[in-house]
Amino acid sequence: MKRLNYRVVIFIAALIFGVVFSIPSLIQSKEGKKITLGLDLQGGLHMLLGVKSDEAIKSRLKSIAGTIKYIMEDNDIVIDDLAVEGDKVTFKVLDSDDIPKAKELLKKELEGVSVLENQGTFTVTLTPKEVARTKKQAIDQAVDTIRNRLDQFGLAEPTVAKQGTDKILVEVPGIKTPADEQRIRELIARAAHLQMMAVDEDRAARVYSMSPAEAKKYGDVILPDVKNPKEKYLLKAIPILDGSMLTDAKVGFDRNNQPVINFKLNGEGAKIFGDFSGKSVGKRMAIVLDNKVYSAPVIRERIGGGSGQISGNFTIDEANDIAIALRSGALLAPVYVMEKRSVGPSMGADSIRQSMIALILGFVLVVIFMVIYYGMAGLVADIALVGNLFLILAVMALFGATLTLPGMAGIVLTVGMAVDANVIINERIRELLHEGASIPKAIEEGYANAFTAIWDANVTTLISAVVLYAYGTGPIKGFALTMSIGILASMLTAILGTHGIYQAFMDKITRDKLNFWFGIKA
Amino acid sequence: MELFRYKKPIDFMGASRKFGIVSLILVLLSWGLIFTKGFNYGIDFAGGTLIQLKYEGEAPLKKIREAMAKSEAFKDATVTYFGSKNEVVIRTKTSSKSVGKDVGDEVRQMLKDTGKFVVRRVDMVGPKIGNELKEKGLMAMVLAILGILIYVSVRFEWRFALASVLALVHDVSIAMGAIILFNVEVNLDILAALLTLLGYSLNDTIIVFDRIREGLQKIKDPDLAGIINESITRTLSRTVLTSLTTFFVVLSLFLFGGEIIYGFSFTMLVGIIVGTYSSIFIASPLLMWLGFDVKAFRAKQAEKLKREKEKEKMRAMYEQGTI
């Protein structure tokens, strides 16, 4: 084979590359890189979540208020009217001698805030930089938290990614039942905001007749019981501590063999918890999760060691999900659904089957047509076409690209368009043969003449595919990707590959066999 | 086999006025539809919820509608068969923001007495996202066209660029008109189809333009109509063949790809027909109507060539060290 030139070598290399790397995808083997099926093809849950980052600011201010209360009490500074209002925390220092000390303490203990003081009334606000940082952190943290939760739930390959500046994309493939989906959604949505709050024992008896506005006047909030919404508690609005000081949460069982959640606090939390319980023997402390009271036991003694328990008639699954949520941290800012798509597994299988039928049928039609119309030249184009298909699959597998339904349509369409380059070339060759050019000259010039047309046409198509990829979302991106790969692959297989094949067989192509080779009678 | 063997140029340009008028009418009608009736936006763009159910046996449309009517949130929902009589889709404008609660669950509850079914698909798109997608889609189209304009201007000439983009607008307009006329729901996949169409139809046009560009250099006679006729005739077999193969595949998608890909394949089908027509009958005449001047083009090309040669000469002289 003295005519084995570089074109044939590249083409064969490309073919081997294509076949080798598309095998894992085709036989769905466990090993090797393969194409992931989009959620529309394998079924699953796709959600685009928005983040209410304003809420993160609010809870940040609340936690600042909690810290202020603690450090002032710790330093025997008596304060009053501590409140979180809008975007600021306000309080009064009663003894004017303490004002400089209070200022110093705030400066030392709090970061990212600006403090204003006027005749003993302090106003603490977050700096604009801190507001932006908190919001960004809320989103980043939400991404991490949701990812942690889904990982711990034990599902196959969930995707959690930040989209733009304020959105989160969650994709969970392989959900089998609606109940599972429900659980996953609840797990994602759970704020898991744990708070320990003191019951306002002085006014607790009046809770059922008290309005929320009145409660606010006393610096209290009214929160419902988790199981029985009619039961309400009057609690001090500033929590003793919150879940940010939590280090672990596990499911355990109480004496009646009911599932409970055992949690542990870090050193700071344990200290605050111990100090508070020591001072409040005989009073009640409510364990509040996501603004619902789970239990409000009477404190019998100082609780050291920093561990506690949440009980609340859970099922095992519930307890487990809450523990996961607590462990992976609270959502600083609640999330809401902007877009949700869920596809059942049977639906995905149907979609694959149908588009496969269409793909194979269209493919077979094109292959047969090309052979009928061009003879051997048609077969050569068909070989390029098959090579092209394998290359698309291989490149997609290597990139770990996701194959979606529109992506499949993209492949189908590429099949139709990929033969175009060879059609242009063949037509040019035929034209030159009709004009009486010699066979080698017709082939060489045919390729040369066709080249600019193929180049310009493909580059313009590529431009629109790239724009599509940059601006498209989800399925459109998949489509643009397969199209771009298809175009590039067809340039390689159809221009380089087929050219090499002709050169290799140049000896065999003779004028009396033109009908066999190019489907024409010269 | 040979369908079109070149013998002599076919006089496409002679009939260009007639085709131009037909196209103008079609485009204006399409725009009329776009501005009066408007698109039937699906949930991707309008926001709302789509729920697809598959019943065991025929879906009891009447029962489903009755059950829906009882609910406040779903009383305006539309229920239609989807592909077969076993499957239905329910469309509503409602969407839920809560992550924990789900419209799909509500529907499951509501319809539990209507027969045995599985929920195959629940799509919910909030209104904000819908608008964002619309803006992005439009942006993508504009940018793609801009990119094409620039590339073709550089590689050909500005009139070629303008003519190819006008032909694109022509194709996309008519495809949009057909989408409205046949009441196809406009979702993301339709947008994808329109953008593909952009690439496809452009592909077709560029191949013809490439031949014209070649003809401008080879054919002595400076008669533009003649050059165009010759070029179109010579590319005719390629245009028809490629359109045919693409048409085969899209047709098989349309016929066997199932309901879910119907909108996409329909749009592509229309697009291929219109795109092929326009690259033969519209794009090249546009070149003429835009006042493309063969002599001026040749003069410019000659000038360019001369300048290049001079540069070459200068370079050669520099390299030899003499000026």
From TrEMBL, chain A:
One of its GO terms (molecular function) is protein-transporting ATPase activity. Gene3D superfamilies: 3.30.1360.200, 3.30.70.3400, Multidrug efflux transporter AcrB transmembrane domain. Residues 139-201 form the Protein translocase subunit SecDF P1 domain. It is a multi-pass membrane protein. Keywords: Cell inner membrane, Cell membrane, Membrane, Protein transport, Translocation, Transmembrane, Transmembrane helix, Transport. The keyword Repressor does not apply. The keyword Membrane applies. One of its GO terms (biological process) is protein targeting. Part of the Sec protein translocase complex. Interacts with the SecYEG preprotein conducting channel. SecDF uses the proton motive force (PMF) to complete protein translocation after the ATP-dependent function of SecA. This is Protein translocase subunit SecD. The gene is secD.
Automatic annotation (TrEMBL), chain B:
Residues 108-291 form the Protein export membrane protein SecD/SecF C-terminal domain. The lineage of its organism: Bacteria, Pseudomonadati, Campylobacterota, Epsilonproteobacteria, Campylobacterales. Keywords: Cell inner membrane, Cell membrane, Membrane, Protein transport, Translocation, Transmembrane, Transmembrane helix, Transport. One of its GO terms (molecular function) is protein-transporting ATPase activity. The chain crosses the membrane at residues 21-43, 137-154, 161-184, 190-209, 240-262, 268-292. This is Protein-export membrane protein SecF. Its main location: membrane. Part of the essential Sec protein translocation apparatus which comprises SecA, SecYEG and auxiliary proteins SecDF-YajC and YidC. Forms a complex with SecD. Part of the essential Sec protein translocation apparatus which comprises SecA, SecYEG and auxiliary proteins SecDF. Other proteins may also be involved. In the C-terminal section; belongs to the SecD/SecF family. SecF subfamily. Part of the Sec protein translocase complex. Interacts with the SecYEG preprotein conducting channel. SecDF uses the proton motive force (PMF) to complete protein translocation after the ATP-dependent function of SecA. PANTHER family: PROTEIN TRANSLOCASE SUBUNIT SECF, PROTEIN-EXPORT MEMBRANE PROTEIN SEC. InterPro entries: SecD/SecF_arch_bac, SecD/SecF_bac, SecD/SecF_CS, SecD_SecF_C, SecD_SecF_C_bact, SecF_bac. One of its GO terms (biological process) is protein transport by the Sec complex. It is a multi-pass membrane protein. It is found in: Cell inner membrane; Cell membrane. GO terms for cellular component: plasma membrane.
